[in-house]
């Protein structure tokens, strides 16, 4: 991070990466990442061969290196059918043009961290992906121990969708990775199979609870002494029925016990939320 006592106030500008960035780009990658990239990769980046990238520079540097990269993001298009996440976005086999943008590398040199440079670079990627009608999302992998990057993508509202076991193999050791996605152009799948099952389970749980409570009420009604039942009919039992039939009857809610009202409301909400979710899911299938 920049020294707060220094008078230098950076002026960050974003631009495409160019052939003149080759050496600095390679040096920063070596400094920041545990994996080594081939020279070919950097040549592809600076010449834009299948890779789209953005760079950040500080045009107010005290050392005068005003055009030297201080941050970068490199990306490439992945056809939907070749992506490992076609089950996660609205994939349509008849639309062979559907694609995703994959973030290959993102980095900011130490002195310029926590100034929002990476946020701006990733915003550029999202803007670009959104501008392509056939693009459904931006995705990437982060090694499981890289907490700053995990926090960063969460802050940028990427969704953590998977943990991939033993995804990386670095210096003789395996590491898991997290897969993050940012959906664009309505790319989000309406519901994953797990979400559909959960919605059904929620619905049936609510239904069972309602049955149990009905049975319990019938049983307790039966057990009441005859005089008690008659006496209470005008107050407790009728009011309870009213509450179930008409939840917005304020006089009923006022008279009813909070616990009973809570149950009816929770159950109704859970069931209707579950049904809405199922309806949305089925519509999207
Ligand atoms: C991850 C990285 C790109 C973040 O760059 P940056 O320019 O400092 O990020 P930003 O300033 O845009 O930060 C945005 C948010 O990310 C989170 N964040 C960034 N750095 C963080 C850190 N060290 N610890 C915790 N959270 C962090 C914060 O939530 C931050 O928001 P805040 O400043 O409002 O708290 C940078 O630390 C880096 O280059 N790391 C090494 C390379 C790397 O790991 N790349 C990502 C994997 S490809």
Automatic annotation (TrEMBL):
Domain of life: Eukaryota
Limits of the N-acetyltransferase domain: 12-182
GO cellular component, one term: Golgi membrane
Gene3D superfamilies in the record: 3.40.630.30
Biological processes, Gene Ontology terms: chromosome segregation
Known catalytic reactions: L-lysyl-[protein] + acetyl-CoA = N(6)-acetyl-L-lysyl-[protein] + CoA + H(+); N-terminal L-methionyl-[transmembrane protein] + acetyl-CoA = N-terminal N(alpha)-acetyl-L-methionyl-[transmembrane protein] + CoA + H(+)
Acyltransferase keyword on record: yes
Keywords: Acyltransferase, Chromatin regulator, Chromosome partition, Transferase
InterPro entries: Acyl_CoA_acyltransferase, GNAT_dom, NAA60-like
Gene Ontology molecular-function annotations: histone acetyltransferase activity; protein N-terminal-methionine acetyltransferase activity
One of the Pfam families matching this protein, by short name: Acetyltransf_1
Enzyme Commission code(s) on record: 2.3.1.259, 2.3.1.48
PROSITE patterns, A to Z: GNAT
Assigned protein family: Belongs to the acetyltransferase family. NAA60 subfamily.
Entry protein name: N-alpha-acetyltransferase 60
């Amino acid at each position: 991070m920049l020294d707060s006592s220094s008078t230098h106030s950076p002026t960050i500008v974003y631009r495409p990466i160019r052939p003149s960035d080759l050496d600095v780009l390679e040096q920063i990658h070596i400094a920041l990442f545990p994996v080594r990239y081939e020279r070919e990769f950097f040549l592809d980046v600076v010449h834009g061969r299948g890779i789209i990238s953005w760079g950040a520079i500080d045009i107010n540097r005290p050392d005068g290196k005003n055009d030297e990269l201080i941050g970068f993001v490199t990306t490439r298009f992945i056809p939907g059918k070749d992506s490992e996440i076609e089950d996660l976005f609205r994939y349509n086999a008849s639309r062979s043009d559907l694609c995703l943008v994959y973030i290959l590398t993102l980095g900011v040199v130490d002195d310029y961290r926590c100034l929002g440079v990476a946020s701006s670079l990733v915003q550029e990627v999202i803007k670009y992906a959104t501008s392509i009608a056939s693009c459904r999302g931006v995705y990437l992998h982060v090694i499981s121990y890289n907490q700053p990057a995990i926090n960063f993508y969460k802050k940028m509202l990427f969704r953590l969708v998977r943990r991939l076991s033993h995804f990386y193999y670095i210096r003789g050791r395996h590491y898991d990775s997290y897969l993050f996605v940012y959906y664009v152009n309505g790319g989000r799948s309406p519901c994953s199979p797990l979400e559909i099952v959960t919605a059904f389970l929620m619905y049936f749980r609510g239904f069972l609870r309602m049955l149990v409570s009905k049975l319990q009420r019938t049983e307790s009604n039966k057990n009441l002494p005859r005089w008690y039942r008659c006496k209470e009919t005008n107050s407790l039992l009728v009011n309870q029925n009213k509450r179930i039939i008409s939840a917005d009857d304020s006089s009923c809610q006022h008279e009813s016990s909070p616990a009973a009202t809570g149950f009816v409301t929770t159950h109704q909400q859970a069931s209707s939320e579950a049904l809405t979710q199922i309806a949305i899911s089925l519509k999207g299938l």
